[in-house]
Design brief:
4 strands, two-stranded antiparallel ribbon, two-stranded antiparallel sheet, globular, 10 helices, single chain, mainly alpha
Length: 191
């Protein structure tokens, strides 16, 4: 698989999307994972994490192909999972289809479920994953950062919460947010 991932990376660079994205999606659908050895790097990265990273780094035309190939499947699974209130199905969508629009929505719903169940760090981590994905962040920020910060505060991590708020204020100083149905600006933006 290591060689196949290397070849997939090369083919993505040549804009050969269809077959490569089908292969990468197959990697994400596997039950098991393995680690890649990277020459000159002591860190090991899972093959699934690498596949997800490659999909997340696609240029706009590659992302459009990915959404066309897998977005409808992810959407159907998301709708079924929400209707059934199935947390495990949501988690599977996040694992397999994170970089589709429905995958981002599944991560958001799952984060809200985790927060509702008192799993504040799990919720914050899901929000962070969305924040770190440029496509998700473009649609959902600054609300993601606020939600992550709230969950980190409730988990007893005020420094991490403050760091997230500082970062979003630096990136979007005039951003408006909605809290309890009321629109306001970020704290530093009104100072």
């Amino acid at each position: 698989l290591s060689r196949a991932i290397t070849r997939a990376r090369e083919r993505l660079g040549d804009h050969e999307y269809h077959e490569v994205l089908a292969f990468l999606q197959g990697v994400l659908a596997r039950d098991e994972d393995a680690f890649l050895e990277r020459p000159g790097d002591d860190r090991q990265l899972g093959i699934k994490a690498t596949a997800r990273q490659l999909i997340g780094e696609l240029p706009p035309e590659g992302y459009e192909v990915y959404e066309l190939l897998h977005g409808a499947t992810a959407r159907r699974q998301l709708e079924a999972a929400i209707q059934a209130g199935d947390r495990e199905a949501l988690a599977r969508i996040v694992r397999q289809y994170f970089h589709t629009t429905a995958g981002y929505e599944a991560a958001l719903v799952l984060a809200e479920m985790e927060a509702d169940q008192g799993h504040r760090l799990a919720a914050a981590e899901l929000y962070r994953e969305l924040i770190e994905s440029p496509r998700a962040a473009a649609r959902l920020e600054p609300q993601l950062s606020v939600a992550a910060a709230i969950n980190l505060l409730k988990a007893g991590q005020p420094e991490d919460a403050a760091a997230i708020i500082r970062k979003v204020v630096e990136a979007k100083p005039a951003a408006a947010i909605t809290i309890a149905g009321k629109s306001t600006t970020l704290p530093a933006a009104s100072a």
